Amino acid sequence: MKKISHKLMLLFLLTSMLPLILIGGIATVWSYISTRQAIEEHNQQLARIAAQRINSYIEEEVALLYSLAQNIERVGLSPWQKETIVRNHVIRFPSLESVMLVDSRGDLVVSSELDEVNLDPYQQAFQYALHERRAYRSPMVIAEDLVPKLVIGVPVLQRGKSVGVLLANMNMLYLWEIVDTIRVGKAGNGLLIDTAGQLIAHGDRRGKPLVLQQQDLTPIFATSHNVWGEQVLKSFATVSATGWRLVVQQPLSEAFAGARYIVLALSLISVLVLAVAVFVGYLGGKSLVQPVEKLMEGVQHLAKGELDYKVPVSGRDELARLADAFNKMGDDLDKLQGELATRERAAAFGRIAAALAHDLKHPIQNLKLNSDLLTKKYDDAGFREHFHEVMQRELESLNYLVTRLRDLARPKRLVKIALNIDAEIGQVLDSFKESLNRQHVQVEFVGEKSPTLVLGDMLAIRRMLSNIFENAIQAMSENPHGGYLQVQVKQQLPTSMAQIAIKDNGCGIAKERLKSIFDDFATTKDNSRFRGMGLGMSVIKEICESHDGSIEVQSEEGVGTTVVVHLPLAKGAVAELYGDVVDSHTVEAEQLHRLRH
């Protein structure tokens, strides 16, 4: 897609389709959610009504048996009178197929049946009602005549004691009729499941055989499918009298038919809007291509340095104003280039001056401090010798910095030799001896058993170490109990690198400032006493990288800072000078000659 007209066409498509897609998606989701909620609420209401009807039906029958049980023993009736009452009760209520009165010993007193009665199938109902003194309802079973039946046992109570049990066989055909009346849409129906998960009633004619087969619906009871694998929307209600669960289900294809019509309508609208957007995008892109192509041609001439090239200007729209601004930009570019060059030179000189001031500060401070002590310790021969060494070392550093300033216009020269980094650390720490003593800083050095030799420029390495130690000492200046400075040197032979870890217990660096500590003019010192120009860490990083090394800083505010420097190990006593391999003594002689001249 290289042409602007194509991009504009795509823009029109996106701006027109994205809102439509967003609105269509929201409408689709809302339609499905609201449809599902409405169907579930409706089906749930149907399930509750049907479950209440079933529950009322069973409770009414149980209440009739309770009434019969409590009245049959309250009057002095003879056995034949009791038998007459029981048979009349069965005749009056068709749902009761048989009723039997059993005494507390389990002997039959009277029965509505003319034939001899076997009480073995009723033992569980008898025992439960007699001892628990409440009604017993058995699981529903399909009898030999293919009629669903339920055994009910009701205790006969006198003065709070069970004196017998009234047993009844209850016909549950009315229960099937209730389930058959449940209809949702064209294909929705209801089914009834007992506490063991067995199907006891089904409103679909295809499910009638499953009821007679006592089908176990436990595997699909918690799924979104029916027994034929169709996806359905289910609602549940419980028959409180028995614990059975009534399920009202409707196929998803029928339940979401209305929502699908909405999606189809939105799809058709989207296609129509897409066609209109393509046409408008094509016309709009074509009208904008020519002015933009002229601007592109002007940019190409400007890139070649033809600053006097002018883009034709026609009209008064935004593109015309852009072309006019482009022509003015070409006229002003020469002036801006000259000003930019001047500013860059000024910025470079400013940075050089800032860096020079930063690096001169430490040698001058050491010279001043030792000069002040010379008047007090002049009679101390050891101090005079120490003063002489400090003067020589710091003057060599000043000479090195001046030489670097003189050679700024030339490529940097690093004279790398095999340096004993342990000794170099000791030399630099010695220059901070007075500051360390004044601040009561305890220094611990941990090194290898043998000296660690690194390949590096002696004064550059000392400059790097001096900056790190100076930062650490300043960070510990506010510690009332003194400071602790640990220097650890390790040889990492697998990588041929030396690791120098310098750890202090100073004020630390805030987490948000750690990312910028190596930037020029970025300082982490808020104390005006030590606040510098923010060049120390950038100089340290530059020296590390110029030696093919690396540096990382770990710090926690209020705890301390650890600076870890990695420098390449020197292989034996051989070093590299300007690409040639020479003896280290020759290199050291050359370096000292360069430093002193």
Sum up the structure in keywords.
19 strands, 5-stranded mixed beta sheet, disordered C terminus, 6-stranded antiparallel beta sheet, elongated, 15 helices, alpha+beta, 597 residues
Can you summarize this structure?
By secondary structure, the chain is of the alpha+beta class. 51% of the residues lie in helices and 20% in strands.
Largest sheet: 6 strands, antiparallel
Q: What is the number of E strands? A: 19
What radius of gyration results from the CA coordinates?
50 Å
Number of helix segments? 15
- Estimate what percentage of residues fall within beta strands: 15-25%
Q: Could you report the average pLDDT, rounded to the nearest whole number?
A: 77
Question: Judging from the principal axes of the Cα atoms, what is the shape?
Answer: elongated
Helicity range of the residues? 40-55%
- The CA-CA distance between the termini, in Å, is 65 Å
Overall structural class, as computed from helix and strand content, comes to: alpha+beta
Uncertain segments of ≥5 residues (pLDDT<50)? 407-411, 526-534, 573-597
